[in-house]
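TL;DR need structure tokens for one chain.
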Amino acid sequence: MLGNRQIDFMGVRKIAAVASAVLVIVSLISLALNSLQFGLDFTSGTSVRLVYSDAVVVNDVNTTLQANGYNDAVVVTFGSAQEIRIILPVDENVAVEDQATQAAEVGETIADVLRSATDNEVTLLGSDYVSAKVGEELAEQGGLGMLVALGMIMLYIAVRFQFKFSVGAVVALAHDVIITLGIFSIFRMEFDLNTLAALLAIIGYSLNDTIVVSDRIRENFRRLRKGTPIEMVNVSLNQVLGRTLITSFTTLIVLLSILLIGSESTQGFAIALIIGVVVGTYSSIYVASNVIIYMNVTK
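>> reply
TL;DR here they are.
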């Protein structure tokens, strides 16, 4: 409830259902045509980690690398303002069994190049080759983990509430994940392990919101003597609206701080969670509740 004002959420449930369907379809089409822009965590390549004695300027590092022929190198900061990670695509001319040795040599070469271009002390922390097989296993295990999580969630809510509520919750969670992945696909944002972790966090956040709404709906079905299912769902949504908005707002403040102040390595994580919080708040109101209405939930 926002003051004493009652908002008719379910009055626009058909419009919300169409909007959600369009967003999900667009996301699936983009994922099918464009796929995801997988980061080095999921593809093959070389990762070089270095630390400077003072804060490093990423643009200067990029300029130095490009001047020395490393045009495809991606430079990101991680850990602190002194530490950087340089990501290089795999050299197709080098045999797979020699890639690890090649990665070590590339790390030493890049460290020497950067030392010659700055007065700072540059220390090589490590240079590793990430194989495509490892990335493929990570993608498969991550996808399997999300499917298992959705299955366990559906079972829990079916026992905790009833089957109709569990369907609504799982549909809402799938809706949130698909749209988040779709946005990453449409805008060609890098998808790495941090983003995968954010997706799992989105599932937890959205689930918490959906359970709060479902619990209030069930309570009002038991407590209120009069009213249609749609009216009871509306009452329930208004009662938890304040809590939902405050939780989402405070969470977004933290995530925006990470996005604006944090390093580039955390940007994908923050962006994914920001999308997830916004879409998850919407889905707990319109998707989960909409599904149980369409499944004819009654007292």
